[in-house]
Write a structure and sequence with these properties.
Blueprint: H1 2-33, E1 35-39, E2 44-48, E3 57-62, E4 66-73, E5 78-83, E6 87-92, E7 96-97, H2 102-170, H3 173-204
Antiparallel strand pairs: 1-4, 1-7, 2-3, 4-5, 5-6
Length: 205
């Protein structure tokens, strides 16, 4: 009795492990067969519940939609796919492609085009800003050069006026007379102050 009970328990205990062991290669093979795929550029494709058009239609799928390839039936030429989460269906395998279709490529190219167009607009705006700054810098430089030229002309005019003023002063008879008078006055004051000293020095000799 106890031996029969132990045998029954051991069978119940090891039965799940046996089933998992036997089913593991099938699950591994099914997982290995799965791969990303796309629907070709047909407008839309009917999905069937089994590998053939005699099975009921379970839905439709649009061109370019990304799906997961699960398996294929070589006899009917149908492939099983998974789409929109966990939904599955069968369709002719010629509608399954492993490269993005024209619709997907067009969307990708459109996104790239829009991105490059935005970058081009930004570069154009930066170019316009730099052009405005350059024009402003050129205008400021020309203004500074004009101011420098005006300052040089003013300097030359003042220099000419100063030279003319100095020349006219020494050509004035009153100025010349005053200079002669001043020189005579200086000699008149200095020479008498020096003359007695010479006499005293002669007297001691």
């Amino acid at each position: 009795m106890f031996r029969l009970f132990r045998s029954s328990v051991s069978r119940i205990f090891f039965l799940p492990f046996i089933l998992i062991t036997l089913g593991w290669p099938v699950l591994a093979q099914q997982s290995a067969a799965e791969k990303p795929a796309f629907i070709s550029d047909a407008l839309f494709v009917y999905l069937h519940s089994g590998p053939g058009n005699q099975y009921r239609i379970v839905g439709t799928i649009n061109a370019g939609q990304d799906v997961t390839f699960l398996s294929e039936d070589s006899d009917s030429g149908y492939a099983q796919i998974r789409y929109e989460g966990n939904k599955t269906g069968w369709l002719p395998k010629e509608y399954v492609s492993y490269t993005p279709g024209l619709v997907t490529q067009l969307e990708t190219l459109t996104e790239k085009f829009n991105s490059q167009r935005d970058q081009l607009q930004q570069l154009g705006q930066q170019r316009d800003d730099l052009s405005d700054k350059l024009n402003t810098a050129i205008a400021e430089r020309e203004n500074a050069q004009e101011q420098l030229a005006q300052a040089n002309r003013s300097y030359e005019q003042l220099k000419t006026q100063l030279e003319a003023t100095q020349t006219s002063i020494w050509q004035n008879p009153m100025v010349i007379g005053s200079a002669i008078l001043l020189i005579g006055l200086i000699f008149g004051l200095v020479l008498p102050a020096l003359w007695p000293k010479r006499r005293e020095s002669e007297r001691w000799m």
